[in-house]
Write a structure and sequence with these properties.
Layout (H helix, E strand, L loop, with lengths): L2 H13 L3 E9 L10 E5 L4 E3 L4 H14 L5 E8 L2 E5 L6 E7 L3 H14 L4 E6 L8 E5 L5 E4 L5 H12 L5 E5 L2 E8 L4 H16 L15 H11 L1
Antiparallel strand pairs: 1-2, 1-6, 2-3, 4-5, 4-6, 7-8, 7-11, 8-9, 10-11
Helix pairs in contact: 1-3, 4-6
Length: 233
């Protein structure tokens, strides 16, 4: 995701804070976007960012609030002849995480996206929702200290997840005891490369299907963050 997309998404969220944020978790096949791409739909129907193909975005826009009616959820989508159909998570061309924009976890993510725009490093770790398991998330700064963590995450939960995240590549999935984990390691230095790769992918893969791409931040108590750092070290 390019810095322009980050700015567009956080800017729209600041103006229209109620909506649904979609994140591409996994891609199978030569689609325009890769894991980590985001698409924000406000309750007023305004959009920012890009999810994958225009046909998938049209489906997300049409059913945004329906997806998160019972909380954050994972959905799979298949693309055929520029038409998108919903499938079971893990069975389609694209897996997408949908989360309501007003929950604490999404607000923390928006804060991380803004921080990267100010040339700060952020690591965002998301434990994906599954059946009765809700979305869980924690965010770390450039020193790997925890800035935010979901209320349901205890220190003993974060320590092993943090250890995995520190050695993970950007936008990767990992199976853990707590559930499937999506790790994003976002740095300002990646921005130019991301923008170049986005432009290259849209020209070489999407062809005519490509589209124009149109702090509230909870702080985790510092004493707990220090405990996490010392236990993981």
């Amino acid at each position: 995701m390019s810095q322009k997309e980050r700015n567009d998404i956080t800017g729209l969220h600041a103006r229209a804070p109620r909506g649904v944020l979609f994140t591409v978790i996994a891609v199978r096949g030569p689609l325009c976007r890769q894991a980590g791409a985001r698409f924000y739909v406000s309750d007023e129907g305004l959009t920012a960012g890009a999810a994958a193909q225009a046909c998938i975005e049209a489906l997300l826009l049409q059913r945004a609030r329906e997806f998160v009616r019972d909380g954050a959820v994972l959905r799979g989508f298949s693309v055929s002849l520029e038409e998108a159909t919903e499938t079971h998570y893990g069975n389609g061309d694209v897996d997408v995480l949908a989360e309501a924009a007003e929950i604490e976890e999404t607000l923390a993510l928006m804060g991380a996206l803004r921080a990267v725009g100010q040339r700060e490093h952020r690591t965002v770790v998301t434990v994906l929702p599954a059946q009765s398991m809700p979305l869980l998330r924690f965010v770390m700064d450039a020193h790997d200290d925890v800035l935010f963590a979901s209320e349901a995450l205890e220190t003993e939960d974060i320590v092993p997840l943090r250890r995995i995240a520190l050695s993970a590549d950007h936008a990767t999935l990992h199976d853990t005891r707590q559930g499937r984990m999506f790790v994003e390691r976002m740095t300002a230095e990646d921005t130019l490369e991301e923008e170049c790769m986005t432009a290259k992918n849209e020209k070489s893969v999407c062809g005519n299907a490509s589209r124009d791409e149109k702090e509230t931040y909870s702080i985790y108590p510092p004493e707990i963050s220090q405990n996490i750092s010392s236990e993981a070290g």
